[in-house]
């Protein structure tokens, strides 16, 4: 009997092995129908050409174990022979027995509204069908029914991994009839995975009739969508490649909740008590029928209830670790030893021994025990590895805000992952705003050849606060890419763009402008002016034109890019929102904080609507809204917004994330400006200490310079002026070694230093410092730059402090005119200059005029800032002096 079976296998083996010759690893899992379809071992391998003797076939079987599971006849199974959909990913329902006697583990199929559309996609015998919907919406079952109905004589191909799918493209494209089954399509995309070119070869393969049938969750479909990420971000290349695959598919959406028509069709099958209960639940609640049948809501409740002390806390921790692995981008089953390490993290976080955890084996048995013989919280695999039920991680990530993944979980997963999986984890960490673990994952992924992991690592280094090191890394990548592909290669241009960006962020905006002009010229020549990469470089150019003081030119470039992106991509595209961000930031930095605050308020609303309230970009834009609101004179309101923002950042971001740290700085700054300089200085001292201790920023980063400048300013305002002057003396020396001579932030340090010297009573020295500062600002930034206007105001204060009130009044009168022209009559700096001018007029002997001027200033301050603002109180006090 055995010899007869092997004779049939050997006779059919040639067909299969001409197709699979040369594959070096297990690349295909073929589903064989009901259990018992293959006698003996769970997997059989075939590795010989057709017609060879049994001994040769069996020898190659032993040499390449696990290459291929075959049917009894030694061929890939026909779709008609695969009559167990659970093996293809369909969630089981409660089996027969008791109240469901006579009903199998998979209930009768109830026709879905999306089925005709799905059938139409594949009506020509080939095509690429992609079913999109939430977990347990019924996507996989619908795909199975369509394939069974229309392709019973096709061979069924289920790749084992993304690498397997790539290896199978050429052999499968030579089959006459085949269905490629890609349940959870996202697992086949990514580094080393399926590309648009592979799919096109399958679909356009001569006389072959190959259908690709895939499913993907709605969340993953959005992730790979056109609005998911900027092209120059880590993960952008993978998402873009996946997006190109998705564009080839005909998308059919499967709703999780069932329509009235679907529920009516299900009513015809309510002799099955499982369907009857699911329909009743769907009619009275917000769940779908398929969701109830898979027992997904009950499994989620069991997981949450298991945390109770004395219940199943170890099992809950075990499941939590496996769920977090999937949330972190590791979607392959995990071995038991890794799960042990992960579960200890969650158990300790919840209370450890105080929860009275059960023994390990008991916990594992409970987590893998199917609820009513449907799905289980953990899905065991034959090799002793485990995967969390997909409904769990998708549900957790839909929470607002989604819970943070513990640091130790990232570390264990990165340690466990190979370089390819580390790249997936790194991209997920970056998208979640976790730059520290993204860097660690990309560093491990960089062990494989190719630039991609090193590019993403360098980007994370720059975004995490060390732009000079990022620029150095990209400098080396540019040289390497030019050697490999030449100056016009896509990789070379990407690296040049990033190198320029991080040189600008490292304090060299003028150099970045020159570099970016070259990149734009080359990208325009090769890709066109409106290509997304060219637009990205133009957007960067606008940023650094503004940083280098060329405000009018920067505004013009931003307006041009914003118009192009809105027209080409739409108003809600992330790239368009990025240009809106840059334009608003530039206006605020150019002295129009009120307008910038309004633009950011609108941008935050659009980010929240399109990307969610806890997306890293939404949090970042909230920070800038609060910042410019404070710059516009509303310091107390800004401090309150920063306090709220800091709480939200800590819910989803690393405590050392740049936006978390920047929120701490914003809160401290505007507390100081609202009248509490002592507390502000103390908060900044803690921030600076934390940054140094954790080495968050590189030694040449401009960010700590900003923190230290404000710390010195508030120390001076709190009475420690001499200490402030010493700090600023040191800061000036260090800033000169980091920032370009014309960098606006360097001028801000010089202005703070001169102001503290003046407050210390060294009027002559302060006047000389302000005089040089005015000349340098005019030379580098222009007459109308906000820093130039600030320096002119400081020089006037020196004259007033020296008792030369008439000269001070003359300078301030001109300054008021210029600030009104450049910034507007209600800008806080304009109002401050008007207030100072009135006081100098009064001190020079014209009390009546000073009173008239101060009354007008008070009226405008109340109108702009409100009745209770402290600046209004200050003007009232000064008005009392002159009336």
Keywords:
883 residues; mainly alpha; Rossmann fold; Serine Threonine Protein Phosphatase 5, Tetratricopeptide repeat; three-stranded antiparallel sheet; 40 helices; 9 strands; disordered N terminus; Tetratricopeptide repeat-containing protein; TPR-like_helical_dom_sf
Describe this structure in words.
It comes from Actinacidiphila glaucinigra. This is Tetratricopeptide repeat-containing protein. Pfam families: TPR_10, TPR_12. The protein has 883 residues and is mainly α. It has 5 domains: 2-221, Rossmann fold, CATH 3.40.50; 297-416; 468-590, Tetratricopeptide repeat domain (Serine Threonine Protein Phosphatase 5, Tetratricopeptide repeat, Alpha Horseshoe); 676-802, Tetratricopeptide repeat domain (Serine Threonine Protein Phosphatase 5, Tetratricopeptide repeat), CATH 1.25.40; 817-883. It is built from 40 helices and 9 strands. The strands form 2 sheets. A 6-stranded mixed β-sheet has the order 1-3-4-5-2-6, sandwiched between helices. Strand 8 and strand 9 (385-388) form a beta hairpin. It starts with a helix and ends with a helix.
Shape: elongated
CATH C-level class of the largest domain: Alpha Beta
Distance from first to last alpha carbon = 117 Å
Structural category is mainly alpha
Query: In order across it, which strands form the biggest sheet?
Result: 1-3-4-5-2-6
Can you name the CATH architecture of the largest domain?
3-Layer(aba) Sandwich
Briefly note the CATH topology name of the largest domain: Rossmann fold
Please indicate the count of domains. 5
The unreliable regions are 1-70, 96-102
Strand tally, please? 9
The share of residues in helices is: 55-70%
* Mean pLDDT over all positions: 86
Helical segment count: 40
| Major sheet size, sense and barrel closure | 6 strands, mixed
| Range of strand content | under 5%
Backbone CA Rg: 33 Å
Protein name: Tetratricopeptide repeat-containing protein
């Amino acid at each position: 009997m055995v010899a007869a079976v092997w004779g049939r296998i050997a006779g059919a083996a040639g067909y299969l092995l001409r197709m699979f010759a040369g594959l070096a690893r297990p690349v295909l899992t073929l589903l064989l129908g009901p259990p018992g379809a293959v006698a003996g071992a769970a997997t059989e391998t075939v590795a010989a050409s057709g017609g060879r003797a049994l001994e040769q076939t069996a020898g190659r079987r032993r040499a390449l174990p696990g290459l291929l599971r075959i049917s009894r006849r030694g061929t890939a199974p026909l779709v008609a022979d695969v009559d167990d959909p659970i093996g293809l990913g369909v969630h089981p329902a409660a089996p027969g027995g008791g109240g469901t006697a006579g009903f199998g583990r998979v209930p009768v199929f109830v026709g879905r509204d999306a089925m005709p559309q799905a059938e139409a996609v594949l009506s020509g015998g080939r095509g690429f069908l992609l079913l999109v919907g939430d977990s347990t919406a019924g996507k996989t079952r619908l795909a199975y029914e369509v394939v069974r109905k229309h392709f019973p004589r096709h061979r069924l191909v289920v790749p084992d991994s993304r690498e397997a799918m790539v290896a199978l493209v050429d052999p499968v494209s030579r089959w006459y009839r085949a269905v490629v089954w890609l349940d959870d399509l996202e697992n086949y995309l990514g580094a080393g995975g399926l590309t648009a070119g592979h799919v096109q070869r399958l679909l356009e393969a001569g006389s072959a009739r190959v259908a690709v049938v895939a499913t993907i969750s709605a969340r993953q479909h959005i992730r790979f969508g056109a609005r998911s990420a900027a092209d120059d971000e880590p993960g952008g290349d993978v998402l873009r490649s996946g997006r190109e695959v998705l564009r080839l598919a005909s998308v059919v959406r499967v709703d999780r909740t069932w329509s009235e028509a679907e529920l009516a069709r299900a009513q015809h099958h309510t002799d099955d008590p499982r369907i009857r209960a699911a329909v009743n639940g769907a009619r009275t609640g917000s769940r779908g029928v398929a969701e109830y049948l898979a027992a997904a809501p009950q499994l989620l409740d069991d997981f949450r209830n298991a945390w109770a002390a004395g219940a199943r806390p170890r099992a809950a921790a075990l499941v939590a670790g496996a769920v977090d692995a999937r949330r972190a981008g590791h979607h392959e089953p995990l071995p038991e030893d890794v799960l042990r390490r992960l579960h200890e993290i969650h158990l300790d976080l919840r209370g450890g021994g105080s929860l009275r955890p059960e023994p390990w084996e008991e916990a594992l048995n409970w987590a893998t025990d199917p609820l009513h013989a449907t799905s289980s919280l953990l899905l065991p695999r034959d090799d002793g590895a485990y995967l969390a039920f997909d409904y769990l991680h998708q549900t957790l990530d839909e929470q607002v805000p989604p819970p943070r993944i513990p640091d130790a979980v990232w570390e264990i997963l990165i340690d466990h992952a190979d370089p390819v999986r580390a790249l997936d984890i790194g991209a997920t960490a970056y998208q979640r705003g976790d730059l520290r673990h993204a860097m660690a994952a990309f560093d491990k992924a960089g062990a494989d050849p190719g630039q991609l992991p090193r590019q993403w690592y360098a980007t994370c280094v720059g975004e995490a606060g060390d732009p000079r090191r990022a620029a150095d890394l990209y400098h080396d990548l540019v040289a390497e890419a030019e050697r490999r592909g030449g100056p016009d290669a896509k990789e070379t241009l990407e690296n040049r763009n990033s190198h320029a960006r991080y040189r600008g962020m490292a304090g060299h905006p003028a150099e970045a402008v020159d570099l970016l002009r070259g990149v734009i010229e080359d990208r325009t020549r090769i890709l066109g002016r409106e290509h997304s990469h060219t637009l990205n470089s133009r957007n960067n150019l606008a940023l650094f034109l503004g940083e280098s003081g060329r405000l009018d030119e920067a505004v013009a470039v931003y307006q041009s890019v914003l118009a192009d992106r809105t027209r080409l991509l739409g108003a809600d595209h992330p790239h368009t929102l990025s240009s809106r961000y840059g334009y608003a930031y530039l206006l605020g930095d150019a002295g129009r904080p009120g307008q910038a605050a309004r633009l950011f308020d609108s941008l935050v609303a659009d980010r929240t609507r399109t990307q969610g309230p806890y997306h890293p970009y939404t949090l970042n834009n909230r920070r800038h809204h609060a910042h410019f609101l404070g710059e516009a004179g509303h310091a107390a309101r800004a401090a309150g917004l920063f306090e709220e923002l800091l709480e939200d950042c800590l819910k989803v971001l690393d405590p050392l994330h740049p936006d978390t740290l920047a929120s701490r700085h914003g809160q401290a700054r505007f507390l100081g400006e609202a009248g509490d300089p002592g507390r502000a200085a103390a908060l900044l001292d803690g921030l600076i200490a934390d940054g140094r201790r954790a080495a968050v920023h590189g030694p040449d980063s401009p960010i700590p310079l900003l923190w230290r400048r404000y710390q010195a300013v508030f120390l001076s305002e709190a009475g420690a002026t001499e200490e402030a002057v010493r700090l600023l003396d040191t800061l000036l020396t260090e800033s000169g070694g980091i920032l370009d001579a014309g960098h606006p932030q360097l001028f801000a340090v010089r202005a703070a230093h001169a102001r503290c010297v003046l407050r210390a009573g060294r009027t002559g020295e302060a006047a000389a410092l302000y005089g040089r500062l005015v000349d340098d600002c005019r030379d580098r930034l222009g007459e109308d730059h906000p820093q130039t206007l600030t320096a002119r105001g400081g020089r006037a204060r020196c004259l007033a402090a020296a008792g030369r009130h008439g000269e001070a009044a003359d300078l301030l009168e001109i300054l008021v005119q210029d600030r009104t022209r450049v910034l507007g009559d209600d800008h806080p700096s304009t109002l401050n200059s008007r207030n100072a001018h009135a006081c100098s007029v009064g001190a020079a002997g014209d009390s009546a005029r000073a009173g008239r001027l101060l009354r007008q200033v008070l009226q405008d301050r109340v109108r702009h800032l409100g009745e209770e603002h402290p600046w209004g109180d200050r003007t009232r006090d000064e008005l009392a002096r002159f009336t």
